[in-house]
Amino acid sequence: MSLAYLKAENLKFKRSLFRKLIFIIPAALVLISIIFIFVGIGLGGFSSSMVCNWCMPIASISIVVLCHLANNKEQKHKYRTLYSLPIDLKKTFISKTILVAINLLIISLLLSFITVASESILSDVSAAISYTGYYIIGYCFLWFSLLWQIPFCLFLVQKVGFVGSLVINLLASGLGGLIISLTPLFWFFPYSWASRLMITLFGVLPNGLLIDKNSRLILSFGESWLLVLISLLAVMFLTILFSGWYRRQVYHN
Questions:
Q1: Peptide bond into 26 cis (omega under 30)
Q2: Number of other CB atoms surrounding residue 213 within 10 Å
Q3: What is the pTM of this model?
Q4: Intra-chain end-to-end CA distance of the chain, in Å
Q5: Is the dihedral of CA 234, 74, 83, 249 positive or negative?
Q6: pLDDT band at 225 (very low <50, low <70, confident <90, very high)
């Protein structure tokens, strides 16, 4: 039954901007990274600039936009399209969460392949290809650390609107990525998780510079997996919490 809900949600976005963002976001990120390098900001190189811009703040912006589009059709009709249907609204919310997560995963995989391609062009082809698996795993780890934002942003978009959600995510992503990710407090501030994993997996600091291999900011193998586990627990908890809220909130509109 849950698969049917997911298919139904997916059909809503056929030939829509929601689908096109899978390609628009990576293209925009490539363009931004090229501009950064041109003006002298991407000092760690193209791939470093790209992963840095992805973690702060493009990923958070992308999630807000995807969540806004996922909610937009129902919001336009003030949820009247849902009232007459014999459906489980909790499953509808979960389906939206999964659909946005799948799109975010596809974007992450595209970014990993773009990284391999850029490294092949700018450095050694054989070396870049040999690191393909590492780049894929690295971006997948970043994906795990971002998942909790999806149910949270589906909730936030309905509560404070698209612009309000965008501002909140931008500020929190900047605070978490630039400041808190460099302190032990990053464990308690989810917006800093992606940046700390970026430092560990890609060796890139939030300012785009490469990090020293012996830096205390690099997490151990166990700490990295613990952070991924915490991220998964967070997305499960928030999905359960807000799916229940979604069912109650819709009938109040």
A1: no
A2: 7
A3: 0.91
A4: 26
A5: positive
A6: very high
Here the tokens at position 209 are 């510079």
* DSSP-assigned states of every residue in the chain: -HHHHHHHHHHTTTTSHHHHHHHHHHHHHHHHHHHHHHTT--TT-HHHHHHHHIIIIIHHHHHHHHHHHHHHHHHHTTTHHHHTS---HHHHHHHHHHHHHHHHHHHHHHHHHHHHHHHHHHS-HHHHHHTHHHHHHHHHHHHHHHTTHHHHHHHHHHHHHHHHHHHHHHHHHHHHHHTGGGSGGGGG-GGGHHHHHHHHHH-B-TTSPBPPTT-TTSPPHHHHHHHHHHHHHHHHHHHHHHHHHHHHHHHH-
pLDDT digits (tens, 9 = 90+) for 130-140: 788 889 999 99
